[in-house]
Specification:
The complex is a heterotrimer of chains A (263), B (236) and C (416).
Chain A lengths: L1 H16 L1 H20 L3 H29 L1 H8 L5 H30 L2 H4 L2 H28 L4 H30 L5 H10 L1 H13 L1 H5 L4 H8 L1 H28 L3
Chain B lengths: L1 E10 L2 E11 L4 E5 L6 H9 L6 E6 L2 E2 L10 E4 L11 H12 L5 H8 L15 H13 L5 E5 L7 H16 L3 E5 L3 H7 L2 E6 L2 E7 H8 L4 H13 L1
Helix pairs in contact in B: 3-4, 7-8
Chain C lengths: L1 H23 L2 E4 L8 H7 L5 E4 L2 E4 L3 E3 L4 E4 L3 E4 L7 E3 L5 E3 L2 E3 L10 E6 L5 E3 L2 E3 L3 E6 L5 E3 L2 E3 L12 E7 L2 E3 L2 E3 L5 E7 L2 E3 L2 E3 L4 E6 L5 E3 L2 E3 L4 E8 L2 E3 L2 E3 L7 E9 L2 E3 L2 E3 L3 E6 L5 E3 L2 E3 L3 E5 L4 E6 L2 E3 L3 E5 L5 E5 L2 E2 L22 H8 L10 H12 L20
Parallel strand pairs in C: 1-2, 2-5, 3-6, 4-7, 5-8, 6-9, 7-10, 8-11, 9-12, 10-13, 11-14, 12-15, 13-16, 14-17, 15-18, 16-19, 17-20, 18-21, 19-22, 20-23, 21-24, 22-25, 23-26, 24-27, 25-28, 26-29, 27-30, 28-31, 29-32, 30-33, 31-34, 32-35, 33-36, 34-37, 35-38, 36-39
Classes of the chains: A mainly alpha (263), B alpha/beta (236), C mainly beta (416).
Chain lengths: 263, 236, 416
Amino acid sequence: MKALTILQYQWKDLLRGKWIVGYGFIYLLIADAMIRFGGAGPKALLSISNIMLLLIPLVGMIYGALYLYQSREFTELLLAQPIDRPTLFWGLFGGLALPLALAFTAGTLLPILYSGMIITASLRSILLILLLGNVLTLLFTGLGFWFGLRFFEDRVKGLGFALVSWLFLAVLYDGLILLAVFAFGDYPIEKPMLGLALANPIDLARITVLLEFDISALMGYTGAVFNRFFGSAAGITVAAVCLLLWTITPLWRGNRLFLKKDF
Amino acid sequence: MISINNLQKKFGARTVLQDMNLQIPAGQATGIVGPNGSGKTTTIKSLLGLVKPTAGEIYIDGKSIEGEWDYRRNIGYMPQVARYPENMTVGELLSFIKAMRGSRTERDSELLSYFNLESEVDKRMRALSGGMRQKVGAILAMMFDPQILIFDEPTAGLDPKSSVRFKQLVHEEKEQGKTVLLTSHIMSEIEELTDYLIFMVEGRIRYHGPMHELMKRQQEQRLESAVAKMMEETAA
Amino acid sequence: MRLLTLIIGLVTGLILLGSVEITQATQVTVSKDGPLTSVQEGIEQAERGDTVRVKEGRYVEFDIRIRKPVTLLGEGDVIIDGDSQGFVVVVEADRVTIKNIGVHNSKAGFMDDYAGILVENAHHVLIENVRLVNNFFGIYLAKSEGTVLRNNHITASGQRETNSGNGIHLWYTKDVEIRNNYIRGHRDGLYFEFVDGASISENTSEQNIRYGIHFMYSDNCRYERNTFRDNGGGVAVMYTSNVAIIDNHFADNRGSSAYGMLLKEINRSTITGNTFENNSVGLYMEASSRNRIEKNRFSQNGWAIQLMANSTDNLFHRNNFLANSFEVSTNSRQHFNEFRGNYWSQYEGYDLNRDGVGDVPHRPVRLFSILVEKQPQSLLLLRSLLIDLLDAAEKFMPALTPETLIDTEPQMNSVS
């Protein structure tokens, strides 16, 4: 009841900010353009998932932290009221993550629906993209929340940390892996590589996309480790479990920080 | 009845409250005074659960507040610097809090007219002046008719007229047997509204007792001088 | 008068001939209920041109030899079970027809190529509607001309290459027609060596241990509308000239050495209208020259085309490349082939004059494909933002990718 009231308020507030609508529109425009110009096939889905892999982590982390800062007043107001902190935390998180997820889902799904792609394209691929997008939204918003709480008193630090983290996870991390591959390529490094990739949530999400769209290429790789990982249910299972862990951990840490926090 | 036992609070290496022991009987109006940074606000926030104590316990009506939240139903709090969601209008804010608490009180409209805020109901919080926000804070604190009222520097931003009206209201609440906790730098206000005094320095309670006893002890007619004298003593 | 004699003579001759035909085309019936219970005996009793009718039932016999032109015709559910003793049916005469029967369980062996049906030194044989189950080789044609294999269903449950033979095996044959057969679970679904002028159409060859079809030294053949899917190595075509590979479907061949189709030393051939879908490598070309690869569709392959540098003068024209992980990869910066007028879904150019052709050329070889070539493990970074940035930089200023391997007329929309 309380959580619902909080959610209701936040939704109104977010909609009033129009930001969230713009965010949904970005997906709508991109998905529409991709389907219009790329045809209603795997190409459009791939383009959508590429955009998703880029945008959701960035927006999730930065806006997750920013939102905590923006709603500081709201938080302090509510903390003096008869409400428990977990409810408030999940209310705050849900109040941001759910609208973000909804904006993504609606923005992506609408063009898929009205272009008739829902019938022509692989339903499994569509569902995977939608599901992954939603999981990623929860994951990276949670991560952003954690940053925000970690650097609650220093907004510049928190936002900077979110941005740098994104840059690191999205680009630099893979650069380091690439360097490692070329430096130690003669050694059996598949397992550590897989481990490294699974340890980075953006890579993890990317690999999940690979499992759906690039399995032919992955199966063409000559190493037994990758083949066993990607060629069986093990790959998708491990990826799913890791995604789940990555979603839960920042939220769990964030929740603990929030419960102990002095306001 | 509010009991604070061995309360300690550290922010990092800095100790803000040290071994605080305090009993505030129900229905008593208490003023908390002390120099800046003496731990007044931290004490209040600990009572509200906004600040988590490093050690020690707080009991309200015999029940520990640790991990509890429902006890805040009986506390009205008016913060020192009132910050509210900027995009909300005054009316929305009040009805939101009411909806969240599941309350149907109509005291808010009473209080709105009492503070002459009726014409501001549809204004967003960001459009309000500091004083008006303070008034909204006062309304939020009192609209649910709680048993304990906590005011942190309540009149700091209020114009004299509003200040008088506010004090009048607190006085009425006190008459009704509410427990009142008040911090202020304006000694006359303390004198006017409370009977008991807590004097804090560097996170310790230096005096807790009836106000007139303090004045008698310090051989001063006015609270301000008595407190100033005590500050000098502790500094020495 | 002489004319009349001639006519009479002709008429009597025709009547006589006719009566000869009638008397010769008798029927022999083999049945579990007797009196004839053996297929081999039935064949022995039959005269040239006779039909041996086999009634429903399971006949455990092996090495059944057909040494005269007869028709072996099953009626109902007929199974000839070789009981893993040897060949099941061996055809050694021309113009034999085998129809509507089941042939099961030939012997498996390392020294001899045991088969469900062996046709050796026999021409114009017709094998139709035969269900071959669990034979070492299914149908084995050696030195046979004008033979027709139609509507047969050939399955085995081979586990390893060594204990499994080929579904349809052709060796030194000519002008063979193979149509609408289904082959599964053999070593190679179809295997051709020294075959000339065969027509292979509408067959399905899937889940074979090695190749869906494997042919070499087999010129002038034509492959149309066949489906090769989910075979261990895909399809391998070698040392052959002048073949037409048209409208076939190569799909789901995945693995570190699985190819939709592997071409090795294939020259002057036509590869048109085929679909390559979900293969680790769609089309692999090595030492193959002067081929036309036209109007094919490469969709969702790991590598649409792997083109080795020793392949030259091939033309890739009006193909569609859709959502492949890699479009083209090669092993050299040198290259002497032509790509023109294809549709590439990875093309990122524009078409300002709206003529349907992209205004900037397309470079189908990504930098990343070269990185993967050098260090296969880096494949794990596919679709990473970093890789996309590297690719974009390379496209802008090619340093490692073949500079001349470009499609100068990339299409804006898929071509039909």
